[in-house]
Amino acid sequence: MKRRRTIALAVTTAAALTALVGCGALDKAMDCVKTAEAIATSVDKLQQAVSDASNDPTKIEEALNSIDTELGNLKGTTDNADLSKAVDDLNKGVDTVREAVKNGDTTPDIKPVTDAATEIGKVCTPG
To answer: What's the pLDDT at 76?
Structure first.
């Protein structure tokens, strides 16, 4: 009888651990999706800021800072190689746009940023 309880306890513990690990993976996936959505919103703001740069050039920097913040939030949510590459590409794109603005370009090319953000959205979208 004691052996049955021990086996039952072991099976229950294993099932609980499996569920917890599964929930952890689900939490990471949900964090990835939420952050991808936030990045998409930040990129939309960047596009708008570039369009309106003549009215308020500081909006470009604010949008770039927002993207940086969301990229920081994305760290550690997954060990997916495709996501890591897209994050690296987005970082490079943000750096390029930031440098262009610093050099006086009020309408920088943001295509590398939008492309990388799109890729992050694809990688973080379940299914």
So the answer is: 63
